[in-house]
Task: structure prediction
Amino acid sequence: MMTNRVSDPWDVQAADFPKDGSAGDKLTFLLNYAVLAPSGHNTQPWLFRSKKDFVEVYADRTAALPVVDPMDRELIISCGAALYNLRVAIRYFGYMDLVELLPDPNKPDLLARVRLGHAHAPTADEQALFNAIPKRRTNRSPYEDRPLPDTLLEDLKLAAQQEGAWLYLADHDGVRSLLADLIAEGDRLQWANAEYRRELASWTHPNRSLRRDGIPGYAQGVSDLASYAGPLVIRTFDLGNGQAAQNRDLVNGSPALVVLGTQRDGTEEWLACGQALQRVLLRARAAGVWASYLNQPCQVSELRLRLSHILDQVGFPHIILRLGYGPEVRPTPRRPLDDVMFESLD
Ligand SMILES: Cc1cc2nc3c(=O)[nH]c(=O)nc-3n(C[C@H](O)[C@H](O)[C@H](O)COP(=O)(O)O)c2cc1C
Result:
């Protein structure tokens, strides 16, 4: 099979789409866009299998984060985000996306089987979402004191709903300050746990590391030199109070704070939430808006319960994002497709 793989997925060029290749060749090429999705600690917890006329998306549970994500919820959400990129890319290149979710009850890690559907002319909206895929990053800088347009906020709500999730906008000062308290409490609880720090340290790398996964120091605003000490510092010291204060400032200074959730809490809903997350992130990015995560209250179970009570929404919160305008930031590494594809005999 012709794979047309690029060594760094960020370098993928639309002009290289194998328009005369088989459906399998086309879908395999489009996986270069799937892997540009965000993932918890940049674990890239996905695997793909390519056949003659479909590709399959699998959860790679060897990339799990047992401390911060013991149920693999964020792992499945990350795979949902990758699946959404694949769907957008399929539409951009002129096909409907045919997706079977969880197609085999005997294979719980097989999350989706994806085919090219009939010919489809991409809408302006689909083109904008596709063009935002390589421009999206998690941007942890402070954002400008500039409100987001109400129309964009409405679009983001709709984007989440269209993928089967809800988006709650924390637009009252009261709710925002309760969320800021929960985030700060989450920071203190997580950092006080040595296992949390060890897990985070093992996925944090110096800026010049050759690793193609994990979080380089620069993504946290750390200089080249300081980034060498990052993993040791994280593993050794409880930085909870400092993180809590920093995140409180970020929350207070961010033009928008939103929570994504679903009515129920299972694999199907996590996959929906991942697709909703990516649709929201791409819609925001297409409008020049960055996002970053403050998920601590969703990651600590007793805080998640309190968060649910604060929100005027039925169901389960999964992701907290702040949104706003800010400076450009560098992309984080991605593993090449060869590292995330596997063959099997059946
Ligand atoms: C489900 C999920 C949960 C995440 N949780 C956090 C988080 O709690 N804190 C954070 O700083 N980033 C979080 N991230 C962002 C990832 O660290 C980021 O996507 C990854 O490092 C890759 O970088 P990129 O988004 O710039 O491509 C999360 C991402 C996903 C998809």
About this structure: Residues 293 and 321 are 5 Å apart (CA to CA). The mean pLDDT is 95.
